[in-house]
Amino acid sequence: MIAVAQALSHIEKSIMSNTIIETSITEAHGYVLAQDVVSDIDLPPFRQSAMDGYAVRLWGHEEFVVKGEIQAGSNMEVSLRQGEAVRIYTGARVPEEANKVVMKEHVEVFNSSIKVVKFQEKTNIKTQGEQIKRGERVLSKGDELNTAAISFLAGLGVAKLMVYKKPSVAVLISGNELLQPGDPWQQAKTYDSNSYILKLLLQKVGVDDISFYYVEDDTKSSVAMVGDLLDDHDFIVATGGISVGDYDLMRVAFQANDVEEQFYKINQKPGKPIYFGLKNDKVVFGLPGNPAACFINFQIYVLPALRRFLGKSISSFKKGVTDQKIVNNSGKALFLRGECLNGHLNVFSNQSSSLLQSLIQANALIYVPEDMEAVEIGDEVQYVDIVQ
C-alpha cells in the first residue's frame, strides 16, 4: 500500500504520449498537437476590406467617381487616382492606392459618384498579415484542438495535422450480481451504474474508442477476458473484483496475463483498493465496485493517466479555504465530496463510498492528507475539480 502522492507520481512517470498519427482537420477535434504548426501564408493574405462600403483615395475630397466594384474573392485589379472610389465588399481585396473604406451608410450615392457625408478615424482596412505572418508559429505542441483552433487552422489552409493518438479503452465490469437498467429487478441483485459513470467520464476527457465487457466472478473467464483485452486495447479500466474477497478475481487475472503490478491499494478513504499495472505499452487500472469510490478513483488517478497518454497537461490540485472543521482520525488520506464556491469549500455530510447521490451536487473533491488529523475553519486545503 502506498500514499496518494507516490501513486500520482508513479502514474505520471509511467505513462507517456508517444504514439503520433496524422489526422485530417475535419477529424482533429479533441486531439492534442504533437508538433508546432507554422503558417504558410499571411493572414489576411492581402489588404482586406473590413466591411461593405467604398474604397477611396482620400486627398481632401468629399466627392468621388465610382469606377466599378470588387466582390469578395475577385482578383480584379483596380487602380485609383485622386477623387476616385470603387464599390467594395467585406473580405474583398483593397486596391493599393486606397487608404480608407467608407461605410456605405456614410455616403450619398448618385448615378456614378458618391459624396462622403461622415468621416471616421478608422481606415476599415485589414493589413496583410495583421492576424498572423507567414512562418509564424500558430499553435504549439501540446495545444488541444478545440473548435476555435480548428477554425483558425482551416482559415490558414491547413488540411492535415500531426497529433497524439487517442487510446482505445476497454471497460471491464465484473460481478454476478449485476443487472442492467431496464431489466426486471431481482432479489439480491444490483443495477450496474459504474459502466455509465466510466463511459461518460471517458467521453468527457476526449476518448472516443470505448468498448464494454462483462465477466462473471469466475477465474478462468476473467483470465481469458483480460488476455483478449490486452491484445486489442491501450487501456483496461476494470471495476469490481479488485478487493480481497474470495470472488475478487481481477488482480489474479492481471497477474496470470503477466501484467506488471505497479501498485495495489492506496492509503486513502474511500477507494483504498485500486490496482495500477503495465504490460509493455498497455495500461491497466482496477477500480472498486462501490460507485462513489469508482468515481473518485477515476477522477484522481485514471483521468491524469488518460490526459498524459493524450498529450494533455495533467490538472494539478488547487487550493481553497474550508468553511467547516474536518476531523481525520483514520490515519488515511481523505477525498471528501463537496462544493467549491469562490475558493471556499463546503464538505457534504454523507461520504458513504456507495452513495452516488452526494456527487450530483458536488464540484470538488477535498483532499486531507493522512498525516493531517484536523482542518480548522478558514484553513487552506487542497482540492480537485470534479469532471462531470
TrEMBL record:
SMART domains: MoCF_biosynth
Molecular function, one GO term: metal ion binding
Keyword list, A-Z: Magnesium, Metal-binding, Molybdenum, Molybdenum cofactor biosynthesis, Transferase
Top-level lineage group: Bacteria
Pfam family, one: MoCF_biosynth
Domain MoaB/Mog: 170-308
Pathway(s) annotated for this protein in UniProt: Cofactor biosynthesis; molybdopterin biosynthesis
Known catalytic reactions: adenylyl-molybdopterin + molybdate = Mo-molybdopterin + AMP + H(+)
Entry-linked InterPro entries: MoaB/Mog-like_dom_sf, MoaB/Mog_dom, MoeA-like, MoeA_C_domain_IV, MoeA_C_domain_IV_sf, MoeA_linker/N, MoeA_linker/N_sf
Class of the enzyme per the UniProt entry, highest EC level: transferase
The protein's Enzyme Commission number: 2.10.1.1
GO biological process assignments: Mo-molybdopterin cofactor biosynthetic process
Keyword set includes Iron-sulfur: no
Cofactor requirement: Mg(2+)
Gene Ontology CC entries for this record: cytosol
Family membership: Belongs to the MoeA family.
Protein purpose: Catalyzes the insertion of molybdate into adenylated molybdopterin with the concomitant release of AMP.
Protein name, UniProt field: Molybdopterin molybdenumtransferase
Biological source species: Galbibacter marinus
